[in-house]
Every structure is written in C-alpha cells, then in structure tokens.
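Protocol step 4 of 5: obtain the predicted structure for the target chain.
Materials: sequence only (see below). No template structures provided, no constraints applied. The aim of this step is simply to have a reference model before the mutagenesis design in step 5. Sequence pasted as it appears in the construct record:
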Amino acid sequence: MNKRILCALTALVLLCMMLPTMASANTGSMYVKTSNGGSVHLRKAPVAPANNVLTEVPYGAVVDILGYETDQKWAHVSYTSNGKTWTGYMMTRYLVVQKPGPNPKDNPTPSTDTPKMPDFKNFKLVTPYEVIVRPSKPNGYVNFRWAPSYDCRVAMRCYAGYSLTVIAQDGTWAQVSDPQTGYVGFMVRSFLTTVSDGTSVGAVILGD
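Step 4 output (structure tokens):
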C-alpha cells in the first residue's frame, strides 16, 4: 500500500479514537446566570419556539453539561430540582463556570466581573503521555479543574508526584485524565513534568 495513504489512514483511525475524549473536555457542571436575574428555558431541542420548553432553570442553579452542539451556542444539560431530573438544551450564553453573585433582582448593583465560557478551540489532540504534578512548592498542590479556566470549579487537589495522562493541550492548559479516579479535566501545563517511572502519590477530591 502507498506509504502516504497508509499514513493518512493511520492518522484518521487515531483521530476517531481520540474524538470521544475531546467531547468530554466540555463536560462538568456550570451555573445559570442572566443579566436581569431571571430564569432560563430548558428546551427539548436546540431551537427556541415557544412550545419547546421543558422547565425553567432559576438564576444561580447548577446544571451538568453533557455536551455541546457543533456551533457551541447550545449545551446539552441535565438539571435536577426537588428530586426530579430534566435533560434538555440551554443556550451557552447563560452558562458560566464561576458561581454568580447575588441575584440582580435582590442586589441592584450589577457585578462587573463576568466570567467567560472556557475556550477549547486551541486545544490539540496529542499522543497520550504520562506526567507527574510539580507544584511550585514541594509540599504544595495543583488544582485539577473541570474546564481550562481559573474561574472553573476545582475537582480535586493533586500533590507533588501525582500521576496523570495528558491527552490534549494548548499553550497554557493540558487536558488530563486521572487513571485512579477516572476523572478527565484540566491542569496548567507549567505544573506538569513528563516521567517514565509512573511514581504516584495522593490527591484530595473536593466535594460540591
């Protein structure tokens, strides 16, 4: 077989194997935030007709992100309230990674701090490689976050020597998987170093 064709097929197979992992990059929990403190429609489908509403999600509520539409304008989410769970679609412009401040309806002074949606567009798939956590202080830790943003909630704290696998990266962040917990999240690349011996210590998993 022509070498050029063989290389192209191999790259295509590797890309198909890695795509589900990149889809998980966008998963986690986010908060509902509106400029006026109002609720947001959770819809049956990623379109906005008036008869397409499953329920209303209030300002500040937490939703679990299941995925995104191709244009990133809609998120597929799960929302639980009073013991009942709905699964539907919500516009991403109303979702933030940092818990919003007081509802504007209760606090007339609007906050000037508006967290942005995490940016995944510059992430590149890489051949998975092993790293260990390297905090700035020997007895310190590095935050393992659900999204590549300092505003994002922290899933756990990883101490010096903790082993992770890098599966994608941009200039600042690495998307990593934790073989011990099964978590997939993000960590600042400057706090990671490549290793070959697999030496690993502990991490502290944080509650919600």
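Step 4 remarks: Residues 96 and 116 are 7 Å apart (CA to CA). The two ends are 53 Å apart (CA to CA).
Proceed to step 5.
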